[in-house]
Amino acid sequence: MALMQCDFFSETLGVSASMNVILPQRTTTQIGMASAGSSEARHPVLYLLHGLSDDHTIWLRRTSIERYVAPLGIAVVMPAVGRSFYANMKQGYKYWDFISEELPSLARSFFPISGKREDNFVAGLSMGGYGAFKLALSHPDRFAAAASLSGALDARFFIEQNKEEAARIFGGMDDFIGSDNDLLDLAKRRAAEGCERLPLLYQCCGTEDFLFENNVDYRDAAMRLGLPLTYEEGPGEHEWGYWDAQIQRVLEWLPLTKNET
Q1: Which DSSP helix (H) or strand (E) runs through 217?
Q2: DSSP of 119-187, one letter per residue?
Q3: CATH number for the domain harbouring residue 19
Q4: DSSP assignment, residue 142?
């Protein structure tokens, strides 16, 4: 595998930004890690999103994501978005425009990754789980699958508990409910459209996680709406041991086209 730290200027944010990128490399003599390159000119890609207190380095620092994806022939793009909840902030930067429009375009221009829907996936933890579902449900034509690990899928709890910070991100509760930031409303809209090509969704959460009830409520709503959701729960807290194990399950679940090694 090839690992790159990419620092670049974002026209959308008006500041320098960063992402870490893992790219497949076909190897036969590397010790201790099986690797598979893609036979395609452009690699399938997983956009892997961080949580509220983290950045673009965290998945590499807390998990073995590079080793997990090595046999799969898939690229991984890990961007930094601060504490933005992947939103165009009321008082701050336009991180939604950045993550949904500018970043994929730049990543495809910098690296040999595919723009095809069937090759594009997104996953994240906590705030990143929210971001992953928001991307997939906002752009079902771009993503084949999305995974949320301990996701903050109903951000109402964040608005209620962090009023000052949430006001800078979303505005008040009235601004949030029914908006494009409201994943419950977004799910209802996608279901009402009867979209035949909704992305596959994977949701998991530990039963000891403070976001467990939040996840159960979202699961129930998604299932009532008939969304293509795979749901898993089990022992676990809001911590990296759980996420390190679960990202491996996500990679097994992704509808990847298998590459010959």
Answers
A1: helix 212-225
A2: GEEEEEETHHHHHHHHHHHH-TTT-SEEEEES---STHHHHHH-HHHHHHHT-SHHHHTTSTT-HHHHH
A3: 3.40.50.1820
A4: T
- Taking the CA atoms of residue 88, residue 60, residue 144 and residue 223 in that order, the dihedral angle to the nearest 10 degrees is -80
Please tell me the distance from the alpha carbon of residue 98 to that of residue 220, in angstroms, as a whole number. Answer: 31
Asked if residue 1 has pLDDT above 90, the reply is no
Chain-centroid distance, C-alpha 229 = 15
Paired tokens of 233: 């729960």
* Host H or E run for residue 232: strand 229-234
261 in any annotated domain: no
**Spatial strand order in the sheet of 145-149:** 2-10, 15-23, 75-79, 45-49, 120-125, 145-149, 200-206, 229-234
Structure tokens at 66: 């590079």
The angle at the Cα of 124, spanning 118 to 125, to the nearest 5 degrees, equals 155
Domain that holds residue 23: 2-253
Q: Is residue 200 part of a domain?
A: yes
Please tell me which residue, 27 or 108, carries the higher pLDDT value. Answer: 108
Burial class (CB in 10 A: 0-12, 13-18, 19+), 21: buried
Residue percentage of the chain with pLDDT more than 70? 96
- Give CA–CA dist 3/61, Å, rounded: 13
Q: Both tokens of residue 58?
A: 């965290």
Could you tell me the two tokens for 165? 């910070």
Task: Tell me if 176 is assigned to some domain.
Answer: yes
The CA distance from 154 to 148, in Å, is 12
Cβ–Cβ under 8 Å, residues 133 and 153: yes
Say yes or no to pLDDT of 38 above 70: no
Six-digit token string for 204: 């998991």
228 within some domain = yes
Instruction: Quote the number of domains for the chain.
Output: 1
